Amino acid sequence: MAATAAAAATSSAAKPRDRTRWARFRRDKVLLLMMLPGVLYFGVFQYAAQLGNIIAFKDYVPFVGIKDSAWVGFQQFSTLFADPDFWHAVRNTFELALIQLVFFFPVPLALAMFLFSLSRNWVRKLVVSFVYLPHFISWVVVVGLFVQVLGPSGMVNSFLTHDSHHVVVNVFRDPSWFKPMMLIELIWKDCGWGTIIFLAALYQVDDSLYEAASLDGAGWARRTWHVTLPSIRPVIVLLLILRVGDILSVGFDQVMQQRDTFTPAAAEVIDTYVYNHGVGSGQFSVAAVAGLLKGLVAMVLVIGANKVAHKLGEQGVYQ
Question: Do 284 and 60 meet the contact criterion of CB atoms below 8 Å apart?
Answer without folding.
Answer: yes
